[in-house]
Amino acid sequence: MGKEKLILGISASPRKDANTDILMKIALEEAGQADNIKTELLYLRDYKIEYCKGCFACCKEGAANMDRPCPIYKDDMGFLADKLLECSALFIGCPVYFGTVPGQLKAFMDRTEGLLRYSTSKYKYGLSNKIGAGLVVGGNRNGGEEMTLLALYHYYMIHNMIVIGTGPDRTPGCYLGACATTYPQSGQVSDAVLQDQLGIKSAKMAGRRLAEVLNMMKD
Amino acid sequence: MGKEKLILGISASPRKDANTDILMKIALEEAGQADNIKTELLYLRDYKIEYCKGCFACCKEGAANMDRPCPIYKDDMGFLADKLLECSALFIGCPVYFGTVPGQLKAFMDRTEGLLRYSTSKYKYGLSNKIGAGLVVGGNRNGGEEMTLLALYHYYMIHNMIVIGTGPDRTPGCYLGACATTYPQSGQVSDAVLQDQLGIKSAKMAGRRLAEVLNMMKD
Amino acid sequence: MGKEKLILGISASPRKDANTDILMKIALEEAGQADNIKTELLYLRDYKIEYCKGCFACCKEGAANMDRPCPIYKDDMGFLADKLLECSALFIGCPVYFGTVPGQLKAFMDRTEGLLRYSTSKYKYGLSNKIGAGLVVGGNRNGGEEMTLLALYHYYMIHNMIVIGTGPDRTPGCYLGACATTYPQSGQVSDAVLQDQLGIKSAKMAGRRLAEVLNMMKD
Amino acid sequence: MGKEKLILGISASPRKDANTDILMKIALEEAGQADNIKTELLYLRDYKIEYCKGCFACCKEGAANMDRPCPIYKDDMGFLADKLLECSALFIGCPVYFGTVPGQLKAFMDRTEGLLRYSTSKYKYGLSNKIGAGLVVGGNRNGGEEMTLLALYHYYMIHNMIVIGTGPDRTPGCYLGACATTYPQSGQVSDAVLQDQLGIKSAKMAGRRLAEVLNMMKD
Description:
4 copies of one chain form a homotetramer. The first copy, chain A, has helices spanning 19-32, 77-86, 103-110, 145-158, 197-216, and strands spanning 5-11, 37-43, 89-95, 131-138, 162-163, 178-181. Chain A is an alpha/beta fold. The first copy, chain A, is globular and about 50 Å long. Chains in contact: A-B, A-C, A-D, B-C, B-D, C-D.
């Protein structure tokens, strides 16, 4: 039996218990059925995250002895960065806002600068070689779901991660990743995705695929 | 009354009278309802188009006196290039193949090198300042429709064109352009898009928007 | 002589007087040389912008009588929205953060929900039919510049805007829009773009093109 | 010692011994330095490839007993498909044509339909779980390199492959994959990339990364 590996899910919807949360739970429950996989789900809205101000402090000498990746702000990024170090796979889920990731998620992404190759702290290479997957929920049928997934994957690749899609099944809905829509209901309906059978299937496939690829890697 | 302007539609499906053709006709019929607009629809499969071999002959002196943009091949690109010069707007429609435009369409796009800023012939700037719109049909619900539209728009921008989406209506299906899917039927069903009400709406909106923006421009 | 039209520049760098600000000034100065064009440059860092919380209040009846697009937050989005109504073209410039727009810019973009077709206020269709252009500065040579421009253009299209690139000149550096890099210097060098001749050319071209297309439109 | 794994390189430039070929050789030589890795390089221009005509014959019963994935055309796709089955990683390199992959490469990509989940032949799942990497050469500095890499990755994901970038080193030029430019020389200069130190570094990094990730996978 292999080492147990953690899939860290991050739900980046500002709305509690709504569509993105619902699908992330479904996807992670599916992933957790596989051998050697444990999962955890964080809600980005529960954390205080300042905007990165582009000061490069995380890349300078002063960061080397810090217990958090960003020397400037004492917000919740320290806690979140420790979680990122701990996981074997990162699975970000979010609603589509104006064709790409929402502002709060982008702020979080920006603040992981201190986990990059340019960092001087123990957080350097913090996400390197981990597996990345994505889940998105759009209000329109083709309203930015693909671009949002590609924005996540670009982010993962900058962190030297390994990127996967939805697996080998037929009609995945979206090959790039888990993809659901609240259409034909309004995005205001907070559980509209429960009517989106293809979206639910897609979420399960992404979760299963993530576990599968983790188990293809050497420990 | 303004000058009559031509919207040139190009359907780039290899399949006659199938989904892409059907929607292009619907979109162009809608566009043609507007004042001062005439439309024409070509089918790319009717033309012989060689692959560009990257020889830059169209950018060299020898091209200056040619009656076609590519000095090398005597295929149908001469005819097609003349059509491109004639139009005020270019409206390409295609099925999604492996997440972007099909091979034959890409071959056509590549062969318009002689209409670019680097050309030495009368075809130079052949598409400059014209309006560009796109229509795509995917076999999966979120299987590359956005990326295919963006590939078309990137192409239009390289030609110094002006790019538009689907207009001001609610629930356009896709803001980027006309977007339909053969799902939940198989792409093998050649008129599956007739069941896709959102796709049909999206096609009409793109056609209407194209006419509208043409009429916003000075003659 | 036509009506004077306003190009509203928004610099979305957190760093004052650094690379993005420098290039936005160069681009807008170039645009301002054209007939009938005036320009204004705002710095996003000067404004307080809350994250959109996806409550749809701007789409509900209560928003109809508001003097700002978002009924929830009394931050600076009211002022910024009034500026957006006033302009004929929107020209957003930003650094590339993790392959796309920075968090603060994304937060601003998200908060323009109340200018969309779904709004009930006077801000509805606030950006419709306006011209959109983009300028980006990357720390790596090919580190997300294209994706960042496409994220801006997707946003513009959702707002029913008209999108342009860099114009007809040879070797634009990037056809999609103004594009510069701080490479081979570090992004820490706050005026590194002054060494990027192609980036400066690209910024000027985008500014000039924006003015040119504005003057192609009927008043 | 592990099983030897094959990286199959495909150079999709129409120009023999020019920039793309040069960089693909450099990248594969670097990859071949790693343990357990062998490499092979094919030149797409050497093969005859018909356009896919969207007939779905590869997904129908008749394909089950074929010795090639496409029952329709007896061109070189049979040979190429056998090579695809044989490899553990696929590494496609191409010039950027109008912001994405060249027509001939797209035609090849389209013709791998018979290796997908929808196939009925022994080629079904032919690329599933293999690693995918990309290398691109642009004529402009930011002229579609990113979009071309993303088009390759979208293709890989449709085939259920695993996608990687350029590894953990500093200043990779492009995080998404190997990325070079013939600028400031003209693309007409067939060895212009030899002046692009960042492009060469990027090619080596992608090759090295591909070998590294192959060796992270269980046999």
